[in-house]
């Protein structure tokens, strides 16, 4: 994507908004590719060779399509081949996302192996894995980094098809729920969904009224609505923030996508008023939160009581303050996306901190390097430190991953924080870091060069991509009312 030369505030707003476009990709990927399944009803799901098409809409405008193919595999195995293509309007510039999945399923629909790819401007990734018993071993390649890891489940994992006749075969009554496990290749995690049957309702689709079975699926606080026909085929599916998937004929689904609404409006948060007193020592906010969400609102500089969040500005400790947080040791290790043990990461961290013994000064030097050397550019993809160091570009997610890796390699316990921050006229989703200094976690934002971060950084999540998916529960459901400084009320 070629960006025009925006004002400093302009590129910052674009960057902040782009930070959570990867979340939209995850949500889209979740709807298109993952249809959970009850292991007790697997025998009822056998399908013949088939091909199905979906149109993808955002805010009532078509932005792409999805294709689902089912083919016989070796022996009794089945092949599931899926692809999706979407065009997102980001600040008036179109960016295209392509996702592809090929998976081998056993006769009982257990996952045996998979190959998944994700392509967007400035980013590409490929993940492949095999299953042995209850364990998935995978390799993730971004073009500049290769990440190997494994996941262990309580039972053999599976991928199901987008056909869900097994749900209707269970004879569920309206209001009944099922807890269903699944594996997600895009985030390389295992999750459990709660599926509730809401009964039959009349739905108008393409000018035709249809009686469809409604299911509400909840995972990580995110709610997805699915409408099935009597054969168990998904006719319509709706995600947070206005994404809709509609089963349509091939010629219609593959037709040209139109111009969608600008996506920034979907990643901003409903705000009642403007934050005042952000240069002071503390500020309060009233939050209206969605039901069922799990957030890390209380802790560090934040106190959450009732529906009131109080954020207090941190004071930087003396330069020689050593890390002493009770839970700091766990934030020194390398992870699949924060590769603190990578040779290039360790060498750079060593060079930057070689002549800086004081921990606070070391943090400042590492943060300054990330801020000054990583080009502020939206990147649609899963962020990791090695890829960011190699490409030299990224949004808030890439900044946070690279800084965390460098700081950990330099002996500073560091974690990733995710939430929202204020930019001119709205709160936008954002990611930054927290470093352990003394017994406290102190906020630091290398995207905006703030140490500590200002009082409009409201943390909702602590953790990496597997945890950050919980932010999705806030989309379209969070309201923030700034109340000003406690001393001013």
Strand order of the largest sheet: 8-7-6-5-4-3-2-1-14-13-12-11-10-9
Radius of gyration: 23 Å
- Determine the number of helices (DSSP H or I, runs of at least 4 residues): 10
What gross morphology would you assign? globular
- Taken as a percent bin, the fraction of beta residues is 35-45%
The total of beta strands comes to 25
What is the structural class? alpha+beta
Mean pLDDT: 82
Give helix % range: 10-25%
- Unreliable segments (pLDDT under 50, ≥5 consecutive)? 1-21, 24-49
End-to-end Cα distance: 47 Å
Q: How would a crystallographer describe the biggest sheet? A: 14 strands, antiparallel
Give an overview of the whole structure.
- The chain is of the alpha+beta class and 489 residues long.
- It is 18% helix and 40% strand.
- It has 10 helices and 25 strands.
- A 14-stranded antiparallel β-sheet has the order 8-7-6-5-4-3-2-1-14-13-12-11-10-9. Strands 15, 16, 17, 18, 21, 22, 23, 24 and 25 form a 9-stranded mixed β-sheet that branches.
- A hairpin with a 4-residue loop joins strand 9 and strand 10.
- The longest helix is centred in the last third of the chain and has 15 residues, at 359-373.
- The chain starts with 7 loop residues before the first helix and ends in a 5-residue tail after the last strand.
